[in-house]
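Can you please make up a whole protein chain along with its backbone structure tokens because I've never seen that pairing?
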Amino acid sequence: MPTVSIIIPCYNEQATIGDTLRAVYAQTYPRVKMEVIISDAMSEDGTREVIAEFLRVHPDLPVRVVDNVQRVIPSALNRAIEAAHNEIIVRMDAHAKPYPDYVENCVRALEEGHGANVGGVWEICPGASTWIGEGIAAAASHPLGAGDAAYRLQPKAGEVDTVPFGAFRKSLVEEIGMFDEGLLTNEDYEFNARVRKTGKQVWLDPRIRSIYFARPTLGALAKQYWRYGFWKWRMLRRHPETVRWRQVIPPVFVASVIIFSLLAFWLPACVLLAAEVFLYALILFSAGIQQAARRGHPALALGFPLAVGAIHFSWGGGFLWSLVQPDGGRHG
């Protein structure tokens, strides 16, 4: 039975790191075959005290903390991988709760030879018990918000472009290199692009499941997707062959709204802008009403379209802003 190193990027996760560690402790995979490496970006809250308390109560699960002084996710992953002693790397997140058989199914998928990097599906839950929190969770798991991201849409097993988190043999990193520390976001997609360039597969297995908590507010959602859009362009410059339709539509749409707005003094442009905005709103609010009826939650009629709109405009705006920031600075 292979040994497993579970790596967890972390920063100021006092409220959630205990739940994550307890979920790891509850895994069906033998604890004697696991170690946990938390790559902490010098947390300023009580994160390390929570970890220390967990270790005191659960001494039979090896847990180590390494410093991530650069305070970005790809460097967190690389420091954890460098510290890992075991054969298989399983990435987790301090904001997600893996099912008890998560590690077992990751190892099984690798042992069955399905892919060089394997991952599962997200069950997206609200990050806050509010009407907008419900709307954000619904949007993040709907094709209008998630595009064709298979891991958000309850798919069948198969080859995909990318997976959330991912599990792979440590030898894969020795072959294709570490995570790109020049990308503050989209580091996993870029890593998987390199996996696919070697002729290996990235495999999604629905048996691998975790609960992901969406952002709790529209502001937090917008900030998240602005960052995603900004760094997506940086990633595409490295791997232009990976561009997909879902990545092109938001920036093109946002650009068209901006252009038509600037030309609104010209009647044809004003008409086109009004028609575009009306059709867009009609699609979003129609989908919101459908979601409200299907889920039995009337507030989704408003919360869903607001969340989808925040995703589209933030992602598209971040992407466009990245286009005019050729220095590659950390504007996202």
